[in-house]
Fold:
Amino acid sequence: MGVIATKLFAPARRSGLVARPWLVERLDGTLERGHRLTLVSAPAGFGKTTLIGDWVGRQERAGWLSLDAGDNAPARFLTHLWAALPGIRVAQPQGDVPVTAVLTAVVNDYAEQPDCNAVLVLDDYHVIESLDVHEAVAFLLDNLPDQLHLIVSTRADPPFPLARLRSRGQLTELRVDDLRFAAAEAGAFLNDVMGLRLAPEDVQALEDRTEGWAAGLQLAALSLRGVSDVAGFIAAFTGSHRFVIDYLADEVLARLSAEMREFLLRTSVLDRLTGPLCDAVTGQTAGGKVLEELDRANVFLVALDAGRNWYRYHHLFRDVLQARLQAEYPEELPRLHRAASEWYAGQGSTAEAVRHALAAGDHARAGRLVEEALPEVRRTRQDALLLEWIGALPDSVVRWNPVLSIVAGWAAMTAGDLAGMEGRLDDADAALSSGEIAGTWADTEDLRTAPAMILIYRAALAQARGEVEATVRCAERALELAGPDDHFVRGAGGGFLGLAAWAKGDVADALSTFSTAVRELHAAGNLVDEQDAAIVLGDLWTAAGRPSRARKTYSETLENAVRNGPPYPRVTADLHVGLAELDRELDDLESAETHLELAKTLAEHGSITENRHRWYVVMAQVRAARGDFADAIRLLDEAERRYRPGSYPDVRPIAALRARIHLAAGDLVAAEAWARDIPNTPSYLNEYGRLTVARLMIRRGEDVRELLDGLEADAAGRAGSLLEIGVLRALAQQVRGDRAGAAETLRRTFSETPEPAQYKRLLIDEGLVAPQPAAMVEPLTDRELDVLRLLDTELTGPEIARHLFVSLNTLRTHTKRIFTKLGATTRSGAVRRARERGLL
Structure:
């Protein structure tokens, strides 16, 4: 998302400002170490922005961010906040990253700059309504280092922990009573700045009428120019602020030329003004000169940059102008907004172009702009912006546009509305079939590949519903439609074939197919999706009985994701959750909790849709491992609330895990209640539940051999499943009193497991002891250990020989001796035996 540079400029300092030294002194005091927030809170027109802008202009290190309604989108807020931070040393955010991750990076970066004393101003904070943005700024305040101070200018108090900051002496507040002009200040403003010659009693009367309201004084001063009966004017100047606004606006506008008044009214639709944009909206050619004239006349115009190329109207004055425009020329509004949209589109500012198109009611144009922006928005995963756009478009536009219908289907899926998703995909098919308004669709790659993408999303829908064969059918048909250079379609289609293979339990095929799909996503430039895929690959390696490969996948992706420093991509949180799950299985609960705390900080609002529940699942497992079963159940309840069926097969249902925790807590009644509704159909998607039923049967003293035999027959090729089945066989034998048989079953099971040392909690949770490997007849030499370590890599034999600078025959001699000493006959068997003995 691009940065609107003019949002980052503090108002240019005006000459002839009224000196207010005691307010400047209050602001100077906020720079003391440990002081976090200065809140300048007052209604419109009390000079908040002027005061702060003048003070900031004297600071060595200060940043400014003028907020508008568009900043309620977390991604947009994040981008502009980052650009506004003074002295930040790390790269700007890329893609759809969580706000809390960025703010954590901000805190850390400033904390590492001991001599930094920076100020960041958030102006017009009252426009922020987003709970996500409020929470993010509150997070920043809670963790703000001494080196950074925050100033918030607003018309209404934000939902921050003000009472806590106030009690700790970390808050400075400037409010209406502080900002009101006293009589002496009002006199200085009216006579010295505005050039009037008012008697002290007239100044006092006007100050009384306006109650020190700066905007009221300015409006009064403009209206008084050329008035002979000053006392009569002031006597009539009474009423509420709203009355004052209406009255004085009429007076000010009435004294301007008709051309100037029309310019003001028509350009009031703009948040920011520059000459060419004003020309586009008004149809004139002197917009820049008019803005300069308004600036010189002090007619409520605020310069946004030092070069005075960009301006905005005083918000209060703009409100009045817009009310007049609506009352006098309502039919002009669509044309004005459409012209602004066209100008912004020509400048490449799609977000502003879409906003004005929507304000114009030109939904067809807005939809077309969204179509054209879709490739970049999707590639960088600006999901929040895309959801905002698609939600603002009426159904009549979306329904008859195949590309927009596909986007709407994706939006429905993110909300967990699978029926709504199917309806949107049906709309997309119908639109393509009819082709009645095809001429209005943007001619993009998304339109060309729409038939294939509809099938991709139908594959996603089938996958979310657990319909494996339908997933395969739709993905294969999509791949048939894809050309050799349609890398995104090929990556997505191949990805769903891999996910379907996983759902069927064919882990080897899933790993191969999904890995190929990831390479296609890389070729398509979808690096965010490529990083996200690491979560699936990690799960697949774990299912294959290779948790160390899962850890390597997570760790390498995490390293790549954070290589350029914060802010981190959204996948970082999910990678930490994956590492926590692996640590929990190793019974390293402290490390698991550390990863989970990092994940929580990084992505409260930024995890992959399919993974938003997973943090709670893994934390529940950690809590259960510590014996806190009540909290584990509470966490699983929250996980269930957050769960959304998506692209990933639900191979470990939350309800089945809850039943396992009930069993661990000794609550057989709750576990039995769950088991009544469990299907006994042999499939990988049911395996986790059936293994849970086996645990329940063992606790009840029932014979589980037939159930485990069936599960074992279905689990061929899945080392992770076979290991768990073997452990349950041993548990059943031990419960029956056959300890020797249990020990033998465990020994055999672990000897056939690729990485037996990676599984500890599986045994601890069932009250079993890991089998100890037989002692070696002769220890390995240092050279043989070097060879052994390389056998545990992806290197081929010739590559290992070259690495060691030995011949292939010498390598074979070393390998043969290693096999003999470890009692192995294959390379994988030797590595497994070495792991059992702690040699690797």
About this structure: Residues 663 and 696 are 7 Å apart (CA to CA).
